Amino acid sequence: MAVELSWTRAATNSNTKCGDSLCSIPVQCPRQIRQNACMTDGSGNSGALSPHDRATLLAATGRSDPIDALHWIAEGRPLLGGADVSSVLRAVVAAADAGVRGAVSALRAAVRAALHSTLDTSADLVSTDTIVPPHRYQAALANVARRTTTGSLSHISSAAVLAAQAADPLVIEALGLVAGLSWRDLQARSQARGVPLPTESDSTWNPSQVLSAFKIIDDIVCGRVEPQLAGAVAARPVELLLDGATGWSEIEKLRTGGVSYGTLLAQRDVGSAWSAHRNRSNNEISKLMVKRVLATLDEADVGYWSTEGDARVAKVLLGANAGVQGRPPGQLSVVTRRKDGTAGYAVLIAIARDGGTARKTAATLLQLPQKLNVPAVLVLFGTGWADRGESDDLVRAYNGRVYTEHTLTDLAFLAASVGSA
Question: Which pLDDT band holds residue 61 (cuts at 50, 70, 90)?
Fold first, then answer.
């Protein structure tokens, strides 16, 4: 009951006759090169294929010749209903590795289709209950202002900041945002100056940490930071940078008089809406993806160990069940159970919205199968995977067992069949 994969047809039109064989390329191909596309049995090194791989290609495409089948796949034509995608991927990989004519193009098309994930992690938000509401920032700044000699941020001082931070742990983080610094950026800059800040902004602070953070913030607001690159300008808040404004008097005007909606939009443009929140909540997105896999396994009545779900286990136990030597890889999230209760497949999950992330993550994923004592399965979420050349190598490394959110039922079927009578 393997699930059919819908390939997006890249070519056009119907098949045409060329001599006595059937040509599976578009009709507008020049006649002089049709001999490279119109296949006859035994041509193009198809004899290098194993009987099983040959049968897989023919059954999946309905063709009578394996090289014709490879061209069929390369053109993005649909596989027959019931075709097992993992088996087809393995057969195409075998054909490409054996140098069968047309197999490289078929592999690229097959991988692109198989790894076509439509999940865009930028479209959804998680952990929205952790977002600090605007009134809290306003209150933190007001806390600082009322501790100055004039009740205004125009006369902010180290003493006022020390007292305000002691009363409200959000003060330094709020002032950092005034300077255009995320909490992570502020931590990095203070670390570079030899003063590590607390891991979390609401932790306990000592005076030297408060003073270090405020000095960084004050230098930015007052325009004392010099650019490191010729022709560049030092990073500052967009509301100060575009107006050429400096100093805490300008900040006080914004605090008490407000800013235009256009300023908010400009900040989104330069800072990307929700980017910092997404960075903070990446782990939660990953957990949701794991739970999505688990739900599919549950529907197929497949047992498993996982770091998520109702019966979660420790990562070290998960690694032991997968036969990992040393620290378990971060992508290892599930190990399926055979009918006899032993480990079936190690399920590794990775997310990549863009090609750069996919490339970096793939370099790690390619090394993992050899570190496991059970067969590895890879689930890839995100739009960054399909068009990466590294994805071809992933299909090889995982022996075709590569899935997306669209083919999780195939994964469940595979896991359910392991150890069956």
Answer: very high
105 three-class SS: helix
Q: Is the pLDDT of residue 250 over 60?
A: yes
The count of C-alpha atoms lying within 13 angstroms of the C-alpha of 226, restricted to the half-sphere facing its C-beta, is 3
pTM of the predicted model over 0.85: no
Amino acid at 323: G
Burial class (CB in 10 A: 0-12, 13-18, 19+), 301: exposed
DSSP H or E run through 336 = strand 332-337
Average pLDDT over residues 168-180: 94
> Closest by alpha carbon to 284, among 164, 125, 156?
125
Strand partners, 347: 334, 377
DSSP-derived letter for residue 300 is T
Contact 186, 165 (CB under 8 A): no
Q: What is the pLDDT of residue 278?
A: 67
Helix (H) or strand (E) run with residue 415 in it: helix 408-417
For residue 369, the one-letter residue type is P
* CB within 8 Å of 311: residues ≥ 6 apart: none
Gap between the terminal Cα atoms of the chain? 17
DSSP H helical ranges for 62-206: 66-74, 85-97, 103-114, 134-145, 158-167, 171-178, 183-192
Residues facing residue 349 across a β-bridge: 379
Mind listing the pLDDT tens digit for each residue in 226-237?
Answer: 988 888 888 888
Residue 232 CB contacts under 8 Å (≥ 6 apart), including other chains? none
Mean pLDDT of 317-345: 90
Check pLDDT > 60 for residue 358.
yes
Whether 34 has a pLDDT exceeding 60, the answer reads no
Q: What is the mean pLDDT of the chain?
A: 84
Please give the structure tokens belonging to residue 282: 């990446």
Average pLDDT over residues 76-99: 88
Q: Which residue has the tokens 């689930």?
A: 379
Neighbours of 91 (CB within 10 A): 30
What is the residue-wise DSSP string for 228-286? SSTT------HHHHTTT--SHHHHHHHHHH---HHHHHHHHHHH-TTHHHHHHTHHHHH
